[in-house]
Amino acid sequence: MASADSNLLILNFLTLASLSLFYADKAFCIRIPDRASTTPRELSDQSLKTAVFALGSFWRSEAVFGCLNGVVRTTSGYAGGSKINPEYRSLGDHAESVMVEYDPKEINFRLLLEVFWSSHDPRQVFGQGPDVGPQYRSIIFTNGTEEARLAAMSKEREQTKSRSSILTTQIQQLESFYPAEPEHQCNSLAIHVKRLVILIDVKSNLSKFTLSV
Among residues 165, 187, 180, 173, which one has the least CA distance to residue 135? Predict the structure, then answer.
């Protein structure tokens, strides 16, 4: 009985915290009604930069990057494939991804790469934990030669940490990013609940980074 009461208290806490985030915190992400393919620059203000990563479930990815100081908003979506207008139930060859819009005066691409490597297992083939499939593969999407160079250097450093297995992370030039359906964006209340649970899980990995939650 005590266990049931404890679980109920935790659920109530998460629900209240989620409601608080839902109504008070609109800086983490944005719902994009137009799901047409778009490039990073079309989504951001001139003063902001964008980066796109795939590191498993986009709910987890959004939670990881959305809590960083300097990140203005995040958008869950699909990238890395050839199918036009993919959907959650019909991804084609795309990967679940997250677009990160950030203020370069507060955070830079190098730090985002560090968060990327520390927040998932880049040696797992086509999956992260219980999420298995090519849609959960690890990808760094780049926008230009400088980002490609930084991504390649960071991958090489990460590989040197262990030679017993090969990193599966791909580095790709971003062609198109398709925002996911509204219910998969982080201003959905259900996603806020999942976001809090995910943040509790990943907090230890991000302890050395400055968080905004």
Answer: 180
Per the CB < 8 A criterion, the answer to whether 180 and 79 are in contact is no
The ranges assigned to domains in the chain are 2-202
Q: Are 68 and 115 in contact (CB under 8 A)?
A: yes
> Which pTM value belongs to this model?
0.71
Instruction: Count the neighbouring beta carbons within 10 Å of the beta carbon of residue 180.
Output: 22
- Decide: 195 and 186 in contact? Cβ < 8 Å: yes
Residue 118 bridge partners (DSSP): none
What is 2-202's CATH number?
3.30.1060.10
Q: What is the DSSP string of 98-138?
A: EEEEE-TTT--HHHHHHHHHHTS-TTSTTEETTEESGGG-E
**pLDDT tens, residue order, the chain (213 aa):** 555 555 444 444 444 444 344 333 433 333 333 444 555 444 446 789 999 999 998 888 888 898 888 999 999 999 999 999 999 999 999 999 999 999 999 999 999 999 999 999 999 988 887 788 999 999 999 999 999 999 999 999 999 988 888 999 999 999 999 999 887 786 544 444 445 444 445 445 555 555 444
